[in-house]
Amino acid sequence: MDVLRFFTRLKCRLMPYLFQEACEAHTQGIPMMRAMFVEFPNDPGCDTLDRQYMLGEALLVAPVFSPDGVVDYYLPAGRWTNLLSGQVVEGGRWVREQHDFLSLPLMVRPNTVLPMGAVDERPDDDYADGVTFHVFELADGAEVHTTVPDTRGRPALVLHTRREGELVPFRAEGHTQGWQVVRHHAHRVSEVRGAEAESVENDVRLIPASGAREVWVRLKSV
Question: Which residue from 26, 41, 131, 210 puts its CA 20 to 30 A from 33's CA?
Answer without folding.
Answer: 131
